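Quick one:
INPUT:
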């Protein structure tokens, strides 16, 4: 099964403010991509999972990828 690129958009609550985010992730499925984003945001910002709201998970084509690392991982 090949790897696909996903763009995940949402917001997280930190210090009384909702901060928007947009991440591109390489994963084999949408649930795994969601789990990876929750893990990354929790690790980088010390935010609990219940304070992260994911608004959209969208599979993107290789032409739409903006992150060079994600583009490299999908193409190889």
């Amino acid at each position: 099964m090949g790897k696909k690129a996903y763009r995940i958009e949402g917001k997280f609550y930190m210090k009384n403010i909702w901060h928007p985010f947009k991440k591109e992730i390489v994963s084999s499925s949408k649930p795994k991509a969601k789990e990876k984003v929750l893990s990354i945001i929790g690790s980088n910002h010390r935010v609990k999972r219940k304070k992260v709201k994911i608004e959209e998970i969208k599979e993107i084509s290789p032409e739409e990828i903006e992150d060079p690392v994600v583009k490299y991982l999908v193409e190889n």
